[in-house]
Amino acid sequence: MSDGRATHSFHSMEDLVSSRAVRAAFIPALLVPFLGGLGLAVVTSGGLVEERVSLGSVYGGLVVNAFVTVAAVILLVLAQRAASGGAPRAARLAQAIGAAAGILGVHLALHVGWVAGAPWLTERPLQLVNDAVAVFATLGVVWACAEGVHLGIFAVAITLVLAYRVTGGLWHLDAAPQAFSVSVQNLVMAQFAAVAVAVALYRTVVPRPD
Predict the structure, then answer these.
(1) C-alpha torsion 192→195→197→203, nearest 10
(2) Which residues of 42-68 are buried (b: 16+ CB within 10 A; e: fewer)?
(3) pTM for this one?
(4) Does position 4 have pLDDT exceeding 70, yes or no?
(5) How high is the mean pLDDT of the chain?
(6) Distance, CA of 44 to CA of 39 (rounded, Å)
(7) What are the residue ranges spanned by the domains of the chain?
(8) What is the rounded CA–CA span in Å between residue 158 and residue 164?
């Protein structure tokens, strides 16, 4: 009887140690995609601030597109590794949380003056729509290409961008002293197209890790 209890206690302790080890390995594994989503959002939202301050400069938009595209390809590599590791959904959730934190962080920094802006920039909740579409449409492309080609996720990303373009006038809030060369909404559309092409090319040329 005592041997049975001892064996049961041993197995319970072994299961506890095993579960703690799994959690200890799982949390750091999610930290990388979280930081990836955070980094993408900081680059994208920071780039949108620059595009707004520069009144939609084409040159500024091209530079931002380059940085965001590089960040998206890096994120694709991380997403492919998460998929091969068997935890793609948890990684996507961590990336989404990191992206939301990055968007809010950039706007908070702009609001309190940690990031240089312009006195005519309009910081209202609706302004976040520009950032959310830019960041999460990019994430949608990355997620769609991370595991083969997921047409459902890609369709959602395209639908999001098209709906944003149709309602673009609602999200142009800055009372600039002069007209924008290119609207922020059009720059977001161009950014989405650049990311989609770059990620698709990378996905085609570089084999997915097993």
Answers:
(1) -140
(2) bbbbbbbbbbbbbbbbeebbeebbeeb
(3) 0.84
(4) no
(5) 84
(6) 8
(7) 2-205
(8) 10
